[in-house]
Design a protein that fits this description.
Blueprint: H1 10-17, H2 21-31, E1 34-38, H3 50-57, E2 66-70, H4 86-93, E3 100-104, H5 108-111, H6 116-119, E4 128-132, H7 138-146, E5 153-157, E6 186-192, H8 195-204, E7 212-218, H9 221-227, E8 234-236, H10 252-256, E9 278-282, H11 283-290, H12 295-307, E10 316-321, E11 329-331, E12 338-340, H13 345-366, E13 372-377, H14 381-400, E14 412-415
Parallel strand pairs: 1-2, 2-3, 3-4, 4-5, 5-6, 6-7, 7-8, 8-9, 9-10, 10-13, 13-14
Antiparallel strand pairs: 11-12
Amino acid sequence: MFIAYLIFDIRSLRACSMTCYPWYIAAVPHLYHALHVDINSPDQKFRWPNPIRYMHMLGLLPLIESFSIRRGSHSEVGFSPKLFNFCTLRQFSALNNIQDLWIDDLNIPSFMPGIRQYFGRLLPTVQFLTLREPKGSHRQIIYFIGMFQHLEDLRLLYDDYRVNSQGEPADDLMLLPPSVPPLRGRLVLENFTRVGLLKDMIDLFGGIRFRGMDLFNVDGMPLLLSACATTLGTLRLYPDDPRGEVFSLKHVRLLTDNFTARSSLQSFDLSRNKSLRALRIPAQSLDRVLSGDSPNMASNFLRHVLSTITSAAFFELAVLYWDHHFRGVQLVQYSDRPHMHEISQAERAEEASRHHKRFELLREAHKVRDFQLVLCATVWGPIGEYSVRMLRQAVADEKVKKGFDDFSSDPSVTCYLHMGPL
């Protein structure tokens, strides 16, 4: 327990690992639980396949639970069999304890039909899968997802709002997924336009059963909300979603020349989702709205969404704060471990002002119905305590300004482990 408290402090973990053998056994899983590889990194330390080769030489690959293959900022190289040779494939196969897998630009057609030769050792353990800009037909993507028989969480991410001008590859109707994964966790879709993929996935898997959804600029949102009407309990909501309203000048051009112009607030009708108990709103999303010219439209958006919820049970509205949304917390490149630095009085005042604007917007939305506001910091350990302390101070300041007098109950502040589902 003592060493687990230091999981964000790399220097202390390394010191613990050199103290004695029992401390090494306790510390080393936290030191090497995640591995990031860049296909086209200028730094040899992170370039494919160097990190895998170094970790294999030290016998550390079985300790890795989170593995990500990134493409770099300006790389057009996709993840395909061209990146493998005999040694690389043998080392890649030693990753037999991966639970969270992230792949950028996965070229599924290039791996077919012998795709299990490459990913077979990963299939029994992966529970969280992220595909960023995957290449392939609907059936090929569904086949790849269906190989992971214990998959709970699925993320499909696209970088922009453009529709694929080349069209999608032709589907092989004889290609069926080898298994039906549980898909009972969380679904994340971002800038997603392939409605046909969603329909085929629901048909071939006999429905989807996600308990949480994170949907931003998704074509086919009503289809997803309907498919998970009986299971969806948590929905992450973005007040600056271009499918709701034009909340800032940033989205004006996109809405005039893009498919999002056809969407409206009707996409966020939650009246059929009887099991919905919580909405999650990222603080960063609120900040983008409040920095624009249309904060009233954001308030109207939240009012509309809350008014469509028919659940009579206790309902929760949570504002999510990531570590890097706090003054004094920074992230290191190629690392998910934050660190703190000293902040000035001016920075503290600016942070307090941002909190005040967020609370004002939430107070307006609260007039629709009663809910409990929960502020969530998604880190733990010393930095998590620092983040929660700042939130508590912000709440106390708002009480002095009568900021929370309109709420039926005091807001609670909860600190979540940053890798947990929110």
